[in-house]
Amino acid sequence: MHIMKKATLGTWLGFNSLDVVIGLGDAREITLLRLEWPSGVIQEISNVPANQTLEVVEPIQLAAVQKPRTEAGTIEVRLTGATARPLGVVASSDLVHWLALELDAQQGNDLSFRDPESPAGPHRFYRVRVP
Q1: CA distances from 36 to 52, 76, 84 (A)
Q2: Burial (Cβ within 10 Å: 0-12, 13-18, ≥19) of residue 78
Q3: CA distances for 61 relative to 42, 74, 99, 103, angstroms
Q4: In the predicted model, is pLDDT for residue 59 greater than 70?
Q5: CA 97 – CA 122 distance, rounded (Å)
Q6: Other CB atoms within 10 Å distance of the CB of residue 115
Q7: How confident is the model at residue 11 (pLDDT cuts 50, 70, 90)?
Q8: Cβ atoms of residues 111 and 89 within 8 Å
Q9: CA within 20 to 30 Å of 88's CA: 18, 25, 110, 114, which one?
Q10: Nearest to 113, CA basis, from 122, 123, 126
Q11: Nearest Cα to 117, choosing from 95, 97, 129, 99?
Protein backbone atom coordinates (compact mmCIF):
# COMPACT_ATOMS: atom_id res chain seq x y z
CA MET A 1 0.00 0.00 0.00
CA HIS A 2 1.25 3.47 -0.84
CA ILE A 3 -0.02 6.58 1.00
CA MET A 4 0.57 10.07 -0.35
CA LYS A 5 -0.82 13.44 0.72
CA LYS A 6 -1.90 15.45 -2.31
CA ALA A 7 0.02 18.70 -2.35
CA THR A 8 -1.27 21.82 -3.99
CA LEU A 9 0.28 25.24 -4.27
CA GLY A 10 -1.16 27.82 -1.93
CA THR A 11 -2.70 30.79 -3.72
CA TRP A 12 -4.08 34.12 -2.63
CA LEU A 13 -7.19 33.32 -0.53
CA GLY A 14 -6.47 29.62 -1.12
CA PHE A 15 -5.25 26.75 1.01
CA ASN A 16 -3.45 23.44 0.70
CA SER A 17 -5.53 20.35 0.10
CA LEU A 18 -6.19 17.96 2.97
CA ASP A 19 -6.72 15.07 0.54
CA VAL A 20 -4.81 11.85 1.10
CA VAL A 21 -4.31 9.43 -1.79
CA ILE A 22 -3.84 5.74 -0.91
CA GLY A 23 -2.40 3.54 -3.64
CA LEU A 24 -3.67 -0.05 -3.40
CA GLY A 25 -2.01 -1.55 -6.45
CA ASP A 26 -4.42 -4.18 -7.79
CA ALA A 27 -6.25 -4.68 -4.47
CA ARG A 28 -10.00 -4.17 -4.62
CA GLU A 29 -10.52 -3.13 -1.02
CA ILE A 30 -8.83 -2.12 2.22
CA THR A 31 -9.57 -4.77 4.82
CA LEU A 32 -8.95 -2.39 7.71
CA LEU A 33 -8.27 1.35 7.53
CA ARG A 34 -6.93 2.63 10.88
CA LEU A 35 -6.81 6.39 11.45
CA GLU A 36 -4.93 7.85 14.41
CA TRP A 37 -6.10 11.43 14.88
CA PRO A 38 -3.91 14.13 16.53
CA SER A 39 -6.35 14.22 19.49
CA GLY A 40 -5.51 10.58 20.26
CA VAL A 41 -8.81 9.19 18.95
CA ILE A 42 -8.33 5.99 16.93
CA GLN A 43 -10.89 5.25 14.24
CA GLU A 44 -11.07 1.95 12.33
CA ILE A 45 -13.10 1.42 9.15
CA SER A 46 -13.48 -2.10 7.74
CA ASN A 47 -13.85 -3.35 4.17
CA VAL A 48 -13.38 -0.07 2.28
CA PRO A 49 -13.81 -0.56 -1.49
CA ALA A 50 -11.09 0.78 -3.80
CA ASN A 51 -11.55 3.50 -6.43
CA GLN A 52 -13.62 5.93 -4.40
CA THR A 53 -13.39 9.21 -2.57
CA LEU A 54 -14.09 8.70 1.09
CA GLU A 55 -14.77 11.63 3.43
CA VAL A 56 -13.75 10.77 6.97
CA VAL A 57 -14.54 13.04 9.93
CA GLU A 58 -12.82 12.68 13.28
CA PRO A 59 -15.29 11.07 15.72
CA ILE A 60 -16.08 12.55 19.11
CA GLN A 61 -15.76 10.37 22.20
CA LEU A 62 -17.29 10.95 25.64
CA ALA A 63 -15.77 10.33 29.06
CA ALA A 64 -17.51 11.03 32.37
CA VAL A 65 -16.02 13.79 34.50
CA GLN A 66 -15.42 12.48 38.02
CA LYS A 67 -16.67 15.21 40.32
CA PRO A 68 -19.76 15.69 42.47
CA ARG A 69 -22.88 16.84 40.68
CA THR A 70 -23.91 20.35 41.49
CA GLU A 71 -27.53 19.89 40.49
CA ALA A 72 -29.75 16.82 40.11
CA GLY A 73 -30.01 15.71 36.48
CA THR A 74 -26.89 17.62 35.37
CA ILE A 75 -24.29 15.47 33.61
CA GLU A 76 -20.74 16.60 32.88
CA VAL A 77 -18.53 14.86 30.32
CA ARG A 78 -15.15 15.43 28.72
CA LEU A 79 -14.98 15.16 24.93
CA THR A 80 -12.10 13.85 22.84
CA GLY A 81 -11.88 14.46 19.13
CA ALA A 82 -13.05 17.20 16.79
CA THR A 83 -14.90 19.32 19.35
CA ALA A 84 -14.49 22.77 17.81
CA ARG A 85 -17.95 22.77 16.26
CA PRO A 86 -21.53 23.13 17.53
CA LEU A 87 -22.69 19.93 19.19
CA GLY A 88 -25.94 18.39 20.39
CA VAL A 89 -26.51 15.60 22.92
CA VAL A 90 -29.19 12.91 22.81
CA ALA A 91 -30.06 10.31 25.47
CA SER A 92 -31.77 6.92 25.48
CA SER A 93 -32.68 4.17 27.93
CA ASP A 94 -33.14 1.50 25.24
CA LEU A 95 -30.84 2.55 22.33
CA VAL A 96 -33.91 2.82 20.09
CA HIS A 97 -35.72 5.98 21.23
CA TRP A 98 -33.52 9.07 21.56
CA LEU A 99 -34.35 12.38 23.26
CA ALA A 100 -32.54 15.66 22.50
CA LEU A 101 -31.17 17.24 25.68
CA GLU A 102 -30.61 20.86 26.67
CA LEU A 103 -26.95 21.91 26.77
CA ASP A 104 -25.91 23.99 29.77
CA ALA A 105 -22.39 24.79 28.60
CA GLN A 106 -19.70 23.82 26.12
CA GLN A 107 -16.26 25.08 27.12
CA GLY A 108 -13.33 23.59 25.25
CA ASN A 109 -13.53 19.84 25.72
CA ASP A 110 -15.95 19.98 28.68
CA LEU A 111 -19.67 19.67 28.08
CA SER A 112 -22.48 20.05 30.60
CA PHE A 113 -26.09 19.10 29.92
CA ARG A 114 -29.35 18.33 31.71
CA ASP A 115 -31.08 14.98 31.55
CA PRO A 116 -34.50 15.11 33.24
CA GLU A 117 -34.78 11.29 33.10
CA SER A 118 -31.27 10.43 34.33
CA PRO A 119 -32.37 8.82 37.61
CA ALA A 120 -35.03 6.67 35.91
CA GLY A 121 -34.05 3.09 35.07
CA PRO A 122 -30.81 1.17 35.53
CA HIS A 123 -29.13 2.37 32.29
CA ARG A 124 -28.87 5.64 30.40
CA PHE A 125 -26.97 6.09 27.13
CA TYR A 126 -25.66 9.35 25.66
CA ARG A 127 -24.24 10.31 22.29
CA VAL A 128 -22.96 13.55 20.85
CA ARG A 129 -23.97 14.64 17.38
CA VAL A 130 -23.22 17.49 15.06
CA PRO A 131 -26.55 19.24 14.34
Answers
A1: 21, 26, 18
A2: middle
A3: 10, 19, 19, 17
A4: yes
A5: 16
A6: 18
A7: low
A8: yes
A9: 18
A10: 126
A11: 99
